[in-house]
Amino acid sequence: MMVGSDKQKTLQIYIPLVVYTLLLLFPFYWMGVVSFKPTSDIFDLDLNPFWVQRFTLENYLYLFENTEFASWMWNTMVISIVSTALSIFCSICIGYALARLKFPGSDFMGIGIFLVYLVPPTLLFIPMAQVIGTLNLFNTHWALILTYPTQLIPFASWLLMGYFLTIPKEIEESALMDGCSRIQILIRIVLPLSVPGILSATIFCFTLCWNEFLYALIFMSSGDMKTIPVGTVSDLIKADTLFWGSLMASALLGSVPVAFIYSFFVKYYVSGLTASAVKG
Amino acid sequence: MGTFGIRKKITFKMNSGSIQSENFLDRESSLGVLLMLPGLILLLVFLAYPFFLGIWLSLTDTRIGMPGEFIGLWNYTDLLEDDIFHQTAWNTMIYAVVTVPFKALMGLGLALILNNKIRFSNPIRAFVMLPWIVPTALSSLGWFMIFDPVFSPISWLMIEMGLIESNVNFLGDQILAVTAICWVNIWRGIPFFGISILAGLQAVPPELHEQAAIDGANKFQRFVNVTLPQIKGILMITSLLSIIWTFADFQLIYVLTKGGPANQTHIFGTYAYQIGLFGTEIGMAAAITLYMFPILAFFSIFLLRYMRKTA
Amino acid sequence: MEKVNDNQLKSIPEETAENGVTRRQIIKTGAAAGAVALMGGFPNISSAQNKTLNIVRGTYFIPGAQEIAKQQAAEFGKQAGVKVNADFLNWTDLNTKIGAGIQAGGIDVIELWPVQNHLYANNLVDMTDEAEEVAARGGGFEEYVLNSGLVNGRYLGIPHGNNAGTIAYRISAFEKAGVKHADKGGMDMTWDEYFAVAKECKKMGMPFGQSLGHSLGDPIGFCYPYMWASGALEVGDDGKTILFNTPTFEYALNKFVQAWKDGYDETGTSWDDSSNNRAYLSGKISSTFNGASIYYASKRRDDGGELMNDTHHMLMPKGTAGRYHEFGTQTMGILNNSKNIDVAKEYLKWWFQPENFDKWWRIQEGYQLHHVKNLADDPMWQDDPKMGIFKEIPKYGRLRGFAGNPNEKASLAASKYIVVDTFAKAVQSGDAKDALEWGERQLKRIYR
């Protein structure tokens, strides 16, 4: 680990850092600038596009008054929260089962769950549309609440399994000796000790739900049922007119919740992310 | 990803099996199955079944609203003669593979910077992750406007500085369009590589560095001989994951170009979407997506093996 | 005559609609519609209690049209004692929605775009009787309706016209380029003349603009007519022979490639349907192919009518093989898995009565072209001379897939953007011959 004591070394670190930050954050700055400009300014090519000459909230007002943005936000929240809850529930069960229990097929299950990465939504969406149609779930929250976990459970299970394994077996064994049932052990002992892992898995699942696009695009057709990414991309272009200001406003506002929630759990998100790479 | 953990577990299980008494085993096995059930049912209905349904569909000439008949491998062979499909496959390869070295390099740079005692390191870490955290469809919309043929601020700036005369055709020129989508993909992936490599850097025991310094190695030599070997594993795993995920991409391309201009940025996902949902050819679209499977399998198995080896 | 009650009043939008239609007019419409329904002996649908009629349409560009359609649907519901859901989806969502409706039900009345009546022929109720009634009342269908509305001699939905595109241009730019009578609109140009104007305009810093990207409207609306006007077809009337790579078209495509460099905004290969609107409205281009949306947007601008006054329309230029517009009729159809076919039929019969339909049609001031000959002479056309030329478009209407049927092969070719990509490849590489050969190969595979 390098310790920068010279002014020069500090510059060697801070200047590249500034460059990286500008590069990585510029699009969000841009979205902000455009969203606070009146439409006529956006279309005025003589004005400097990099900052706001006349500040206005009209794009945001338009977003809330003339589009179904509020519905999109609601849908995305509900779907993300319920899918995440469902996934975490299933993943805790699976993770614990694979970590601690011996049962027929457990070896195969472990690899099987990993193999799920072979079937991403882009591979499954065509037949999936048929399944959702047959179950008559088109244009309902359930279409997404039931399908998102398939993308979340594999990773979350693996993550939680790893955490459960780090809990000393002795604690559980002595509880077993004391006559506790395994379920009680899971709930009273293992879970409280795995809170970091659960938080990591939860925040991971939540950000993935928010980011999902393809299934939401195909399964939700009416404006008031869409999620934010899909609604922003498809409904802010009326016939052939693009509402740039509101489009950027929607994109920015749509990013805020997940960025906000993530910011509280950065540590957990990062440890979840690196678990995949480091722990291997 | 999970197999390494499983291996260790199997050893554990053997041990635990010997400690526990016989009557627990029964409970254990039935409890185990019970716990697996909720997740398994979801995965069976919404993952396994669609997968096999997809295989079936790809062997028929199903269209939207018209049930299809079995036609064997006709869709697959037909695609092999489809120019646009060739282009799509080629585009996907380029897109998935070419972006990786850039993501790795820039991620490495970011990791090296963050691996220092700097002020505000926590907020900074939160901020630099944003391209990865924020929904791709939304950040791609930002880039969509930044690359707009009329309103691009980049074009504006370059014209103001007198570097060019007319707006840049970012998304309409073949080379520029491919570059644009690769760039947005790289931009999105830098945080992922950065944070993962950072974790790896921080896992390097400081004694190794100190030892090398004592031996007279300079910073660069230390980097090459101490740091790189330690993070080789992470780089490999992160890169493989990145290839697998990029292969299965959709929203980035859909928002930026929808596969245009003239199919030059089509990838498997977007082409299948166009054929299936606009061309109504469901069977053909299913076949397109299934062509992805062997490639995904190849990289996944490679990843699996690599992780087992380094375990 | 049914009195309009407070609830109905509240369901009417607060502001005046885009083009100044007042609430009073809309109320009058509703009341009139109700009166006619009552007087016209509204059929007794006793079993219509507790039924829900699901109507799915695309969003209408003119907000007033959407409001009227919604209000009329509610009006019908009250008359028939049926709950009515009127959904308006954006264009790209309609496809998936139809697929879902066919598979799982839930849609009774659906608005179909051209070719879709062919594509989903197996899933639509035969509406020939009802359609012919509408035609008889209206003085007969226009020819383009016969070409695009009939599927093997039957109507699988009642045709109701479509919105069409043509060439919009800046009068001042055209005058500077030496075009006579540019302020009168409706000029009769050949493609050569049009390209010559483009060259002049580009020299002045205001090129023409055209989308050659992968979007549903403008690219197809431009490229197909140019192809037809240059003596080429996707396929012959035997539905098999590809007549795409002809010498006249190659010659014409080369001309276009040259014109692209000389007179067009060359970023057009990345444009979608909205890019030319933006470019025109911000003064970057002087002419483009578009629907009436540019003109409407210019009317709403805060510039004292400057852009609106400077905008006019003309038909597509003529080529060696004539003048064409890619154009077919939309139809209102009923899915045959609907549980409410009778009610749906009653709704459509009611809506197509001139007293109802014409109000919806007129509020669009020409954005929606007419389906019956009587409306060709409607006084509405006199309201705004700038829109006058639109009513000529149906004469030149031809549908994708010509001269074969507008069936799934035509649809596949269009959704693969084969014709559009031929143009895009040609301007990118400068090699029209190569692009044509590519396009021909693709078409051959589809029409095997």
From TrEMBL, chain A:
InterPro entries in UniProt: BP-dep_ABC_trans_perm, MetI-like, MetI-like_sf
Tagged with keyword ATP-binding: no
Protein name: Sugar ABC transporter permease
SUPFAM superfamilies: MetI-like (SSF161098)
Membrane topology note: Multi-pass membrane protein
UniProt similarity note: Belongs to the binding-protein-dependent transport system permease family.
GO (cellular component) term, any one: plasma membrane
Coiled coil spans: none
Record keywords: Cell membrane, Membrane, Transmembrane, Transmembrane helix, Transport
UniProt entry tagged with the keyword Transmembrane: yes
Stretches assigned to the ABC transmembrane type-1 domain: 73-265
Transmembrane segments: 12-30, 72-99, 111-133, 145-165, 185-218, 242-265
